[in-house]
Amino acid sequence: MTERVWWRDGVVYQVYPRSFADANGDGIGDLEGIRGKLPYLAGLGVDAVWISPVFPSPMADFGYDVSDYRGIDPLFGDIDAMDALLADAHALGLRVILDFVPNHSSDEHPWFRESRRSRDSAFRDWYIWRDPAPGGGPPNNWLSNFGGSAWAFDEATGQYYLHLFLDRQPDLNWRNPVVREAMYDAMRFWLRRGVDGFRVDVIYHVLKDAAFRDNPPNPAYREGVDATANRFLPTHIADLPETQGIVAAMRAVVDEFPERVLIGELYLPLERIVAYYGEDLKGANLPFNFLLIGAPWDASFIGGLIERYEAALPKGGWPNWVLGNHDKPRLATRVGDAQARVAAVLLLTLRGTPTMYYGDEIGMRDIAIPAADVRDPFERNEPGKGLGRDPQRTPMRWFPREGAGFTRGIPWLPIGGDVAAINVESQEGDPGSLLWLYRQLLVLRRAHPALSHGAVQVLGCSHAVLVYARTEGDERFIVALNFTHAAAEPPVPLVGEVVLSTHGAGARGPLEGDEARIVRAPAAG
Ligand code: GLC
């Protein structure tokens, strides 16, 4: 008995604003560009657009370093452009989710400038300042997620400040109630303007150990391979029990307004992800489930994952699934072009809110970035480990022409090859394209409640094929996914009318290699 709300039944589409559509020709995407593409998104059949940060920022981490929580960076437009985008989106029936970055601000935020001015500053306690260790050096062994110590020394005041990401992203002090209220007010500022919710950046990091204890060593750490931050376990800087109170408070702010959503970014194990639904489900509406992103692409593994996740959900907690985002290698690169089609069927037929990443609907792949053109600070700090995120942030391809319809200027990241096949316009004209498959799936999902909020049951898994059912009332669909390139017999018979197959509606019998098939089971009785 679940209440019908847009963020349960709907599909979220993530836009990385620098790379979606550039209206003013400066080579960087902007709000006008996104606004111009809203009809495309409505036509695709998604329900909500999540836009990565567009707030004023020196762009040290491309917007995840916010210098004003209540404005729009001139690169992207202005507040009027955001209002216009909201109005157009709502008129098209699309919701708009903004990215909220509470853990840290930019070092250019007036709060931090004021905080670092002197030890007596009224804003000193807005950030996390500590004296050097007794023998000198950083206060403890905490490491930045982007490499090196998480502590930066401030010569002028003789103390270190904490930054779990770049030194240009000082961590706000969420133990200070004045900071909390200022941030909740910033959320209200956007909610009042009609924003439909937030994706909250690294929500699990906001609180750190009050005693500043060292993190323990990570026995699994591989020198030279893993991000250096993984040298220690994040015991005292992530997922502290008190974090739940902050998540609940953010949710309460969102709930002051009707029909809004709170989504939390969480890179945590399954049993910890589900903790973020909160006591009595008063935490995040959707604690992001990234388990598919790192999962081995294997029928039994994924079948097991679905069962473990479903079993771990608190009663009434609504599931969600993600296959890609701006921090992870692209889906088509991870699983290959043929399996990207199977993945589309998986994502859009699982129980729970799916989040799609821009460009995955046309099969965009990671674009190799020459060392000289690297923009991502993560790659710059830890070169050569494959951690850089530029490859998955390259411009959206709209047309098979110069600039790919993304820009008339010089794109901020290379557009890459294969544009002739991987672009919206060409795929719109090809019923066999991935884009058509996504559209068909989105139409089917919208038309059949069984596919959005119906119950899910894994019916069988072989090493190659996963089969599950989605059921609501009298309606029952069987989804069969072949995770291999070879033809395979499904572990349970697929009885019923084929409503969709990646290999054409005439599909019968065993699954072909890379085939995904949806069958409508005959009505019972
Ligand atoms: C999140 C964002 C990532 C950003 C980091 C610091 O993980 O998704 O892009 O660099 O937080 O804000």
Walk me through what this model shows.
- This protein is an alpha/beta fold.
- The protein folds into three domains: 6-101 and 177-437, Glycosidases (TIM Barrel, Alpha-Beta Barrel); 110-162, Oligo-1,6-glucosidase, domain 2 (Alpha-Beta Complex); 456-520, Immunoglobulin-like.
- The chain is built from 16 helices and 16 strands.
- The chain has helices spanning 6-9, 31-36, 38-44, 79-91, 110-117, 177-192, 243-254, 270-273, 291-294, 299-312, 331-335, 337-349, 377-381, 424-428, 434-447, 449-452, and strands at 12-15, 48-51, 95-100, 129-130, 151-154, 159-162, 197-200, 261-264, 286-287, 320-322, 353-357, 455-461, 465-472, 475-482, 497-501, 516-520.
- It has an eight-stranded parallel beta sheet.
- Helix 6 (177-192) packs parallel to helix 7 (243-254) and helix 12 runs parallel beside helix 15 (434-447).
- The longest helix is centred in the middle third of the chain and has 16 residues, at 177-192.
- The two termini are 24 Å apart.
- The site of alpha-D-glucopyranose has 9 residues, from loops.
- Keywords: Glycosidase, Hydrolase.
Terminal CA distance reads 24 Å
Order of strands across the main sheet = 9-8-7-3-2-1-11-10
CATH superfamily of the largest domain: Glycosidases
CATH class wording of the largest domain: Alpha Beta
Helical segment tally? 16
Biggest β-sheet strands, sense, barrel:
8 strands, parallel
Counted up, domains total 3
CATH architecture label of the largest domain: Alpha-Beta Barrel
Summing up helix and strand content along with how strands pair, one would put the structural category as alpha/beta
Number of strands: 16
**Shape estimate:** globular
- The gyration radius over C-alpha positions equals 23 Å
Unreliable sequence segments: none
